[in-house]
Model the fold of this input.
Amino acid sequence: MPSSRYETAVLPTERFDVAVIGAGITGLATALMLVRGGLEVVVVEASDVAALATGANTGKASVLQGSVLQRIRRTHSTRLARAYVEANLDGQRWIAEFAQHHGVPVAEEIAYSYASTDDGLRTVDREFEAALAAGLPAERIDRMPVPFPFAGAVALPGQLALDPYRLAVAMARAFVAEGGVLVERTRVEGVHAGRPVEVRTPVGTIRAETAVIATATPILDRGLYFAKLHASRSHLTSYRVAEPPPSGLFLSVDEPTRTIRTTPDGVAEPESGGDAPPPPLLLVGGNDHPVGGVPSTEARVQDLVDWTHRHFPGAELTHRWAAQDYHSLNLVPFAGRMPRGRGRVWFATGYGKWGLTNGVAAAIRISSEILGVPWFERRPWIRVIGTRVTRPGDLARGAEEGARVGRGLVTGWVGAQGRPAPVPRPAEGEGVVVSRGGVPYGVSTVEGRTCAVRAVCTHLGGVLNWNDAESTWDCPLHGSRFEASGRRIEGPAVYDLPETTRTRPRI
Ligand SMILES: Cc1cc2nc3c(=O)[nH]c(=O)nc-3n(C[C@H](O)[C@H](O)[C@H](O)COP(=O)(O)OP(=O)(O)OC[C@H]3O[C@@H](n4cnc5c(N)ncnc54)[C@H](O)[C@@H]3O)c2cc1C
Ligand code: FES
Done:
């Protein structure tokens, strides 16, 4: 872990030029660019560096991103689609340079957007055309000797594969070494856009001229970005395999989504010893679902493991984890000044699971604006993306998501009423929502401890659902998540769930 100038949540009395909230790829890249621009910068992180999606993703810094390009091309202008690609190429170049200078291993790989059935080939063809139209040297491939269903693909050489956690830690170290201040384990609960901007934490207030909200989904409701995003969680698994898996970064364009790659340099395996390179691990991810929106997340993990065993016989599961990201309903990430932030609060979000390159691109945009780089010196894509207009398709996706959220709110509250308290103590790893006096409570048992919490999201009142793969309470409305004890993990909510002893389970 990088050494912080503030070991614990000691609050500085000094005033900073910029307070960056969140130490994921967006926050770290922005902070690093700003400190290199000569500003006094503090990063405030609720947990540890790269604790969420940044440290837990599949580590592809790729401009070929499944079926993203054709979807953008279908709803936006060709100019905007090209600007999106340019932004991602800039993000990719920045990562490659940073990694080279800071000793982060990076492998160059071919990225494949593949169809697993003939039905998916239309999407592959459209992605191929969109990639060519954006000036990318893509190729169309019909066959590949891979052990999983493969009907054809678009291929783009020269994409990057890396360990995203290692990259983030190197970025945090560089930031501190270059004069930045990193405060970990300090949750920001609010930002007042005064002069100075006040960043409120449970242990005091940090003051700065400007704040950057880099918390994945913004923790501020100004601009209602939580309603312009869709929170999607995916599962990831890694395996030891006897046969070296195919080289390349594979992502299916059809359902169920599968993302497949090997680790670039293998994960350090103590038993491999000596100078022998550790065997590569196979990484298989997918089975995305709306956060808090499926009856059993564990079933999704098991399905992924079964699929891997079917196509990679003998694969031995080594790790499993999950992460979530936020999809912009507009298909293009948001970055810039936050509405009603008096020009002093910035934010970035909505990378749709492509935040390594998009997060760095957002940092390039935000830092060049904060540093006052003249327009004519800024990257041309910044202006194109910054002036995009809302299209009918964006409104339709917004209305659909709004309806889904509305339905989720009603069914959550109605569903909870159907199970009055008290209830028997849930079995280990299980959780149940019950009603007491019309209020939903969540009762769960994790590692032998049974907890009851108010199962109402502290963001905007969604009724929480139990995530049986990770033993958490997840909100189906905008993606906030809480530990079984009620401690907030992520999402637009900033407060914990109150723990209660009133809803005692019947034992
Ligand atoms: C399964 C999966 C696979 C993916 N694979 C890839 C990939 O291969 N390539 C790619 O480019 N992208 C990938 N992504 C997307 C990528 O991981 C994200 O887009 C990116 O990490 C988002 O970075 P971020 O900095 O915006 O957010 P995060 O990484 O979520 O960081 C936000 C930080 O803010 C902190 N925070 C939150 N609230 C507060 C608060 N109140 N106070 C203080 N701090 C706070 C959090 O603790 C966190 O550390 C993947 C995503 C998923 C879910
Ligand atoms: S995340 Fe918005 S209500 Fe739960």
About this structure: The domain at 63-68+106-160+229-328 is CATH 3.30.9.10 (D-Amino Acid Oxidase; Chain A, domain 2). The longest strand covers residues 316-328.
